[in-house]
Amino acid sequence: MADELISLDLAENVLRIAKAKNEGGKIRVEVLFQQTGMPAFYESDTKKVSDETLTIINRSLDNLRLHKKRVNIVIPDGFTYSQIIKMPRLKEKELLSAIRYQADQFIPMPIDETSLDLEILYEDKVSNNSLVLIIAAPQKLIDRVQNLSEQVGLYPEAIENELSATGRFLENFYVPPSQTGGSIFVNFGYSYTSFYFFDHKMKLLLDSHNFPAGLSVFLREAQADVNIDLLKAKELLKKAGFASGGSVDLNQVLQPAVDALCSELQKYLVSLRSKFQITSISNVFVFNLSTEINYLDKKIEKCISIPCAVFDPISITNRTPAVEAYIKDLPSFITTIGGCLR
């Protein structure tokens, strides 16, 4: 029997690794790992940064005894281009040819410098149409990521973005509260935030939007206004955040950052209602680095007047020893676990 797929989530400032599967509707985790303080791999294409990244991945795999494994690699949405579109029901190769022919409509970069992939999300035999997820990334970046995996003794089966991996997680495990309307999932990253629309009836992600701001903006605001270093800013956001009554009130300090985030989310909600004629958005869920800012979900809920909570998969996760070590950080592993479910 072939080894089960592992997921290597190479985020901007953190490395996450998982080996997990869907076991009767519950998440069975065998390996879960997180390493913070990663080099600026996506911002700096230098040998020094690549070597530092390689060293950290190698050391992590050594400790986990995961060399010579099949791997699915997840890269951040902010360094890829994604669209979910309706197309004629064709075979995958025919769809890819059609998309390449019209590439300038989907991809803001030259096609000969682009790695292009697609995933058929849904096929409607009645209308003879398909819902297709198009993912494009700079070929140079994909080559760098693939070289990394090969140098550490992993066999890359796929390189995908967070949207693709998160969508697979939700299709496997999210149970909508009703058969109508939809939910919004906010992937709160370091430099980017992604909004995903999950349709309750179809049980699929049907739309996404990237916003170039994330945890780094909140950290800069805290550092500048409270006059503290980065480490103390991280600690303050995680412990205090938007809580009231603490020794330091960050509400006013962080208001510009949260206003920008909520404004972008409000605009996205308006666009969804227009695009899909949605009558209701029942919930907004935040995950990934949202746990690094205490009460961020409640602050968003107050801004947009829609119930908002951290999307925590603990209730559908078997409590294995691997899980116990990261029990408070499970919302940050949504995408990583999704990468195991191909």
UniProtKB/TrEMBL annotation:
SUPFAM superfamilies assigned to the protein according to its UniProt record, in alphabetical order: Actin-like ATPase domain
Residues spanning the signal sequence: none
Origin superkingdom: Bacteria
Pfam families, per database record: PilM_2
InterPro entries referenced in this protein's UniProt entry, alphabetically: ATPase_NBD, FtsA/MreB, PilM
Name used for this protein in its record: SHS2 domain-containing protein
Species whose genome carries this gene: Candidatus Roizmanbacteria bacterium RIFCSPLOWO2_01_FULL_37_12
